[in-house]
Amino acid sequence: MAGLPAAAIEIGDDGLHKPDWLRDTFKDLPEDFAEATAEGRRVVLLVEQRGCIYCRKMHEETFPDPRIDALLRTRFYPIQINLHGDIEIVDTDGEALTEKKAMRKWNILFTPTLIFLPRELDASRSAIEQAVAVMPGAFGRGTTFDMLNWVLEERYLNEDEEDFQRYHARMIRERNDGRTE
Predict the structure, then answer these.
(1) 112 with 46: CB under 8 angstroms?
(2) Residue 164: how many CB atoms within 10 A of its CB?
(3) Residue 149: its H or E element
(4) Separation between Cα atoms, residue 19 and residue 172, nearest integer Å
(5) For residue range 129-147, what is the model confidence (pLDDT) as tens digits?
(6) Distance (Å, whole) CA 117 – CA 61
(7) Which of 117, 123, 134, 146 could form an S-S bond across to 43 if both were Cys, CB 3.0 to 4.6 Å?
(8) 66-78 burial by CB neighbour count: b if 16+ within 10 A, else e?
(9) Strand, helix or coil at 8?
C-alpha cells in the first residue's frame, strides 16, 4: 500500500478538491440525509478549505486507496463544506446559514474534518451535536479505513470498552502487520 501513486484530483472554482464520489447537493442537510437514507448510505460531511495542504494529502494519498474509495462510493454519502464558504446550507436543526457561519456554530477549526452523522436524525439538534464521530485532521489510509468501518459497524453504540482507538489497535493487530496503513 505504501507505493500508491498520488492521484490527480480536479480543483473547483472554490479551490477545493472535487473527486467524482462527492455528492453535488444544495447542502440542505435534512434533504441530503433523507436521500442518503433512501440509498442505504451514511452521511459524511467533509470540511475543507482552499490551499489546505492536509486536504490535498487526504485527496491525493488517503482517499484514492481502493478500500477507502470503494466505501466512499458505495456506503457513504459524502458532502463537501467549505470552512470559509458563503454557500447557504440548512443544518440538521433547520437553521439556514452560510457554510462559514455553520462552521463557527459547530466550532470547526481544522481542515480537513470529517463529520459522520447518525442513522437517524434529531431535527432539534445541529449536525455537530449529533455526530457519531468527528475526525479532525489528515490521517493515513489505515486510520481512515478503520474509522469508516467503525462508523459503518456502529461501534460507537457499543457499551463495551472498545472505543475507536482500541478498535483501531485491534484492526492493526488483526492485519498482523503492525502498520496503520
Answers:
(1) yes
(2) 16
(3) helix 141-152
(4) 28
(5) 999 999 999 999 999 999 9
(6) 24
(7) 117
(8) eebeebbeebbbb
(9) coil
